[in-house]
Specification:
Number of domains of chain B: 3
Structural class of chain C: alpha+beta
Number of helices of chain B: 21
CATH class of the largest domain in chain B: Alpha Beta
Largest interface: A-B, 55 and 56 residues
CATH topology of the largest domain in chain B: Aldehyde Oxidoreductase, domain 4
CATH architecture of the largest domain in chain B: 2-Layer Sandwich
Largest sheet of chain C: 5 strands, antiparallel
Distance between the termini of chain C: 52 Å
CATH superfamily of the largest domain in chain B: Aldehyde oxidase/xanthine dehydrogenase, molybdopterin binding domain
Shape of chain C: globular
Chains: A alpha+beta (162), B alpha+beta (832), C alpha+beta (274)
Bound molecules: FE2/S2 (inorganic) cluster
Number of domains of chain C: 3
CATH class of the largest domain in chain C: Alpha Beta
CATH topology of the largest domain in chain C: Uridine Diphospho-n-acetylenolpyruvylglucosamine Reductase, domain 3
Largest sheet of chain B: 8 strands, mixed
Number of strands of chain C: 14
Order of helices and strands of chain C: EHEHEEEHHHHHHEEHEEEEEEEHH
Number of helices of chain C: 11
Oligomer: heterotrimer
Radius of gyration of chain B: 27 Å
Structural class of chain B: alpha+beta
Chain lengths: 162, 832, 274
């Protein structure tokens, strides 16, 4: 049984985008804050901290989840994937990122990392998602800028890719 | 229950040819536009898609930084009897607690546009006037600890009666929000243009309605961020914040801090997570964190959370409008009369009451109505202070005006489209001076409507309505015709004052844009400018503009719009708001690039032995127009200016850095007769839609939505379309979902995203977008503002469609199922 | 906002978890997926002394058919369940209702039992459990007990779980041969909590209708197919639920939804029954 004192900081380690990382966290530290402040990986954004806007969405053990509803200590030992890990190994934008650019699926870009992670998750398990499946996933995000049209166009394009 | 998506239609472009005798007046360049006008993909995306944006909360801060959290008022109106911070201060890690007493001692109240004593500080002083008002600030080692300390602060209040509803608050016996002001109705101004009384007396009919435009906000997904540091040595502050302008607020902050402007260095980051007007309202927090940093002797960082953002950041004002038309039986409107009461909440923060006056010159909308009477009233209430929200007074105006047009049609038994057409400003009338002074630059409204109803297939909409109605379904069609202002006259707000008061205060007019283009010794080009982009793609557009001027590729132009008042050009008009980018900043950048080009052409003409006029810039070379082989590399010409100033042509200043300023002469101060050209450019938007209302759930389904835009020349059609789509989604939110709700005590009921409903993809269909281009003769690039149109048009258009579907006269915004159900439900409910 | 301080324990076995609950009682708070609890912690609406994380307990991560029930362990996520290819066969009502529970991203983490434990009167899973007459399995150092849905949820955000008890599983009855099911909800946006949720089961000449979002817990009514005065039955039900006005809906609106949508849901369930 792991028992962590609430007033102390504890060493937490996990795999982030394929690399082992570690840092210190009180039990109450949100994973979003751990990623951004402890590890300096600021690609994951915070928009509400109540689980609704989706800006903080990341993948943990191959599932898209809300980073703001996850404690850093709960991520200990897991596989975490964030937007910083999406580009192709040579650094080029991947197909989903390219489609986002082409279809003007982002304006301010604040909601974008979360959407990219949700859609990455969708395509990982459902390479040919239906319109309804795309809507279900995109429906878990708030975007204030784009009216979602570009996001849907980009997702449809990736869904149709051979 | 979700809306079906409309199939993605191709965007259609139509161009109007400038009419004879109305050639664009001041087109300054004959350079072939190779990049401007292209749907260039954005350079911003390359970092944003990789998670490498540079938003305010991403930037490194000093390790000495402490973190702030704010205690907020639970009461809408109360006296602060005492604040006990002992327990909070004894918590390990807590550094300081700042209260209203500190703020009162160290700062002055913010300047207000009215003379009344509506004092606001950055923390409540003595009294709280709305739920969510900042009462105390805690500084601690981290945000978690600071919030722990908030729980330990104890404040005792003595509650006071509240004034919430604008109309009730305006009554004489209402509880006073600011006792010293003696009234909540802090400004009443009457305006008259033409002969409204005569027109109303002569009218066949007078048709009126009253609308209420609700409080809401297009809150961005990124909240406010401020990092403030005080430098003892020079008595100056250095602040980083995701502020958006206008920088007319900078003097307001500096005055509050009791320093000259130069001692308040304000930096904005390269990326901002949306704003839509909202991040103007970060300015009181800039002052608060500045004071806290000075008291603590350490940098202070504050990151607002969503709860406090919804509760207290910003709201559009609520406006109650009674609008009346003098009408002939054939549908011609001869006069309009507005009575507008606008609620600004507890304080009149700068630059309020902007929304009430920003459209003033253009209150007659797209219609040629010569007679106009306006009464504009401002009331304060115990609700969150109002501020900038995309559309900025336009949505309030058009909800009233376009609903009225629909009512005129219903009352006269005419087709609403005929009423619109009958009253449109004719194409030959441009530039057109509207009754209250707006100078509409260009357009062909009738043609726009013809294209929209044709290519947008109005006949199909009518077929769908007829088929639905034949089956007993509730289907309606709505229209809205809207004139979209771009780039505000910095003098418009002075229309609020009487002519005498304006004379005393000195004239206010114009709208300055400033930009700098720099070429380094290796020929690399960089750009800085006075805008604070929040996702509009300004970097990309400016690179397109400069690339055309200098014969380079857009990706060779480095544009970094992180802004620093200590180093970059700015004026009070700086910022990204009121669609000033295309008619303003883009023009300044264009001018600066043009100046550089002229300079480089003269340098190259020395080398090539040609007249500067005979040179063209292309492919990173400067070459003879008729002999491409006679050329010098762009980089080489640039190097001359840096390395060999002695060889420069006579009289030429050394170096290659040009700053250009631009202010359009059309933006004159208000006249003695209160005529005011409130904006520089006036685009046109025509929307039509079909909606269906579910008879059981009372939910509105948007069946088809067509939106027609004439924004002059489009600098980047891809980005212009993005503006339309984004504004449309926000317009849908206003029409159907979003509202700040207070209970009868003034408590705020919509403080999470579970209760304040921002539309998701399931609620926003893709509209069909049509374009035409009537270039503006008043801007060198021919472009007009294009960011707000659907925020103005969509709520009105959807309301007209719902009114048509249900046969109701008064659809209230937002048209929630709860509201519509109340209108639809049979009067008698089945008994238990 | 950020959560208040708490200690964190991650037991390796159910027994360890029960021991912690026995020690700390209502000062302990169990977290599985945390999709409701974390939001409450972030808003400082909850402040446990110790958080007991059961999300990694293998023993609670199984989902299996036992007897006539699908027994869903407390660490099983809503997405795990929805991923089961046979769900529509095994418990059709869950297959219909789960897509309405939050969004894909919250279903990936949120558990079925967590939703039951939270006891929100407008949420879908308690409605399904009640409509299907399922059970909740509770365990403590004192032993194990099973409560019927109707006994388990006692009101708004409250259940019959004792402070030292852990919900170890939920038991959803498997589809009975010939039964038909239907689910509908009215929410402001897709994924929002229901203003009104309706679940119907038609079987063996009987209709069971469950309604969420109005009373302080899901309410169930049952009547034979033959009954002709359905409108009257639904009207009575609508009034019985004692609806209230709130931000998103009026009481009358809620009653009208029961009256208006109820017949459709019932007809749908009956059409699927054979
Ligand atoms: S920040 Fe996590 S959902 Fe909004
Ligand atoms: S791009 Fe700005 S919130 Fe989505």
């Amino acid at each position: 049984m792991r028992e962590l004192n609430g007033a102390a900081r504890h060493r937490i380690g996990f795999t982030l985008n394929g690399r082992a990382v570690s840092g210190w966290a009180e039990p109450r530290l949100l994973l979003t804050d751990f990623l951004r402040q402890e590890l300096g990986e600021t690609g994951t954004h915070v928009g509400c901290e109540h689980g609704i806007c989706g800006a903080c969405t990341i993948r943990i053990d191959g599932r898209a989840v809300r980073g703001c509803l996850y404690l850093a200590v709960q991520a200990d030992g897991r596989e975490v994937q964030t937007v910083e890990g999406l580009a192709d190994p040579d650094g080029a934008l991947n197909a989903l990122q390219r489609a986002f650019r082409k279809h003007h699926a982002l304006q301010c870009g604040y909601c974008t990392p979360g959407l990219l992670m949700s859609l990455t998750d969708l395509f990982a398990r459902t390479p040919r998602p239906s319109e309804a499946q795309i809507l279900d996933v995109v429906g878990g995000h708030l975007c204030r800028c784009t009216g979602y049209a570009g996001i849907m166009a980009a997702a449809r394009e990736v869904a149709a890719e051979p | 229950m979700c809306f079906g998506l409309v199939a993605t239609p191709p965007v259609r472009y139509n161009r109007t040819t400038p009419r004879e005798g109305r050639e664009p007046a001041r087109i300054m360049t004959e350079i072939a536009a190779r990049h401007v006008g292209q749907p260039t993909e954005r350079t911003e995306d390359l970092r944003l898609l990789r998670g490498r944006g540079q938003y305010a909360d991403d930037l490194a801060v000093s390790p000495r930084t402490v973190h702030a959290a704010i205690l907020r008022s639970p009461h809408a109106h109360a006296e602060i009897v005492s604040i006990d911070a002992k327990a909070a201060l004894s918590l390990p890690g807590v550094i300081a607690v700042v209260t209203g007493e500190d703020v009162q001692a160290l700062t002055d109240p913010f300047l207000v546009a009215l003379r009344q004593p509506l004092h606001q500080w950055s923390l409540a002083v003595g009294r709280v006037r709305y739920v969510g008002e900042p009462v105390a600030l805690v500084l601690a080692d981290d945000r978690y600890l600071a919030e722990d300390a908030l729980d330990l602060l104890s404040v005792s209040y003595r509650e006071l009666p509240v004034a919430l509803d604008p109309a009730e608050a305006a009554q004489e016996d209402a509880p006073l929000v600011h006792e010293a002001a003696g009234t909540n109705l802090v400004s009443v101004r009457d305006f008259s243009y033409g002969d409204p009384d005569g027109a109303f007396a002569a009218a066949d009919r007078r048709i009126a309605l009253t609308t209420r435009f609700p409080r809401h906000s297009y809150m961005p997904i990124e909240n406010f961020v401020v990092v403030a540091e005080y430098h003892e040595g020079d008595g100056a502050w250095d602040v980083l914040a995701n502020f958006q302008g206008p920088y007319s607020t900078h003097p307001v902050m500096a005055r509050a801090l009791r320093v000259p402007g130069a001692r308040l260095r304000l930096r904005t980051p390269r990326d901002s997570g949306g704003s839509f007007g909202i991040k103007l309202a970060v300015f009181p927090y800039i002052v608060l964190m500045a004071i806290a940093a000075r008291m603590a002797g350490r940098p202070v960082k504050w990151v607002e959370d969503r709860y406090e953002h919804l509760l207290a950041a910003n709201s559009c004002p609520e406006r109650v409008t009674t609008i009346e038309a003098a009408v002939r039986d054939d549908g011609t409107i001869t006069a309009l009369r507005f009575d507008q009461l606008e609620d600004y909440g507890a304080y009149l923060r700068a630059p309020m009451p902007g929304p009430l006056y920003r459209m003033h010159g253009a209150m007659t909308g797209a219609y040629d109505i010569p007679n106009l009477a306006i009464t504009s009233k401002i009331v304060v209430t115990n609700r969150m202070p109002a501020g900038l929200v995309r559309g900025f007074g336009g949505p309030q105006l058009y909800f009233a005006l376009e609903r009225l047009i629909q009512r005129v049609a219903v009352e006269l038994d005419l087709d609403p489209l005929d009423v619109i057409r009958k009253n449109l400003i004719p194409a030959h009338a441009f530039p057109y001076r509207a009754a209250a002074g707006a100078l509409y630059d260009s357009g062909d409204y009738a043609k726009a409507i013809e294209i929209a109803t044709g290519d947008g297939r109005l006949d199909d909409l009518i077929r769908r309505r007829d088929a639905a109605r034949a089956e007993g379904r509730l289907y309606g069609i709505g229209f809205a015709a809207v004139v979209e202002p771009g780039m505000s006259n910095m003098g418009y707000l002075s229309t609020l004052l009487t002519t005498e008061a304006r004379e005393r205060a000195g004239p206010k007019n114009g709208a300055i844009s400033l930009a700098t283009v720099n070429v380094d010794p290796l020929g690399a080009v960089s750009v800085s400018a006075d805008c604070m982009p929040q996702g509009q793609g300004h970097e990309t557009v400016l690179a397109q503009i400069v690339a055309d001027q200098l014969g380079l590729a857009p990706d060779e132009i480095a544009v970094n719009l992180a802004h620093d008042t200590g180093k970059d050009p700015w004026s009070i008009a700086a910022g990204t708001y009121s669609c000033r980018f295309t008619p303003g900043t883009a023009v300044a950048v264009h001018k600066a690039a043009r100046q550089l080009r002229d300079k480089l052409a003269r340098i190259a003409s020395n080398t090539l032995n040609l007249r500067p006029d005979d040179l063209v810039f292309t492919g990173a070379r400067i070459q003879a127009r008729d002999n491409p082989d006679n050329a010098v590399a762009f980089a080489r010409a640039a190097g001359v200016a840096h390395w060999a100033p002695a060889t420069l042509p006579d009289g030429m200043a050394p170096g290659l850095r040009e700053t250009a300023a631009w202010t359009p002469p059309e933006l004159a101060a208000p006249t003695e007769g209160d005529h005011i050209n409130t904006s520089l450019t006036y685009g046109f938007v025509f929307d039509m839609c079909g909606v269906e209302v579910d008879p059981i759930t009372a939910q509105v389904r948007i069946d088809r939505y067509v939106t027609m835009h004439d924004s002059g020349k489009l600098l980047n059609p891809l980005l212009a379309e993005g503006q339309v789509l984004g504004a449309f989604a926000q317009g849908v939110g206003t029409a159907l979902h979003e509202e700040f709700v207070y209970d009868s005590e003034g408590s705020f009921l919509t403080a999470t995203f579970a209760d304040y409903l921002v539309p998701t993809v399931n609620e926003v269909p893709r509209p069909e977008i049509l374009h035409m281009e009537s270039p503006s003769p008043f801007t060198p690039l021919g472009a007009k503002g294009a960011g707000e149109g659907n925020c103005l048009a969509t709520p009105a258009c959807l309301a007209n469609a719902v009114a048509d579907a249900l046969g109701i006269a008064d659809p209230q915004l937002p048209m929630t199922p709860k509201r519509l159900h109340a209108l639809m439900a049979a009067r008698d409910e089945p008994a238990p | 906002m950020k959560p208040p301080r708490f200690d964190y324990v991650r037991p390796d076995t159910v027994e360890e978890a029960l021991a912690v609950l026995a020690d700390f009682g209502d000062e302990a708070q169990v977290i599985a997926g945390g999709q409701s609890l974390m939001a409450m912690l972030n808003l400082r609406l909850a402040g446990p002394r110790v958080l007991v994380d059961i999300s990694r307990l293998e023993a609670l991560s199984t989902c299996q058919e036992t007897g006539d029930c699908l027994e869903i362990g407390a660490a099983v996520t809503q997405a795990d369940l929805l991923d089961r290819a046979d769900l529509a066969e095994a418990v059709p009502l869950l297959a219909l209702a789960l897509p309405h529970v939050g969004h894909a991203q919250t279903r990936n983490r949120g558990t079925v039992c967590g939703s039951l434990a939270h006891g929100d009167p407008s949420s879908e899973l308690p409605l399904c459990l009640a409509a299907l007459e399922g059970q909740v399995v509770l365990r403590s150092t004192r032993g194990e007990r099973r409560l019927d849905a109707a006994q388990f949820q006692t009101g708004l955000l409250s259940t019959a779980r004792e402070a030292d008890e852990l919900i170890v599983a939920a038991r959803f009855p498997l589809r009975r041969a010939g039964a038909g099911h239907a689910f509908a909800e009215v929410a402001r946006r897709h994924g929002d909590f229901a203003i009104v949720g309706l679940a119907a089961v038609a079987h063996d000449g009987q209709v069971r209708l469950g309604v969420a979002g109005i009373a302080d817990r899901p309410e169930i009514r049952e009547w034979p197919f033959e009954r002709e005065d359905i409108d009257a039955v639904l009207n009575r039900l609508a009034w019985d639920l004692d609806a209230a006005d709130d931000l998103h809906a009026s009481a009358r609106y809620r009653r009208d939804i029961v009256r208006g949508l109820g017949p459709k849901v019932i007809a749908e369930a009956r059409s699927c029954a054979n």
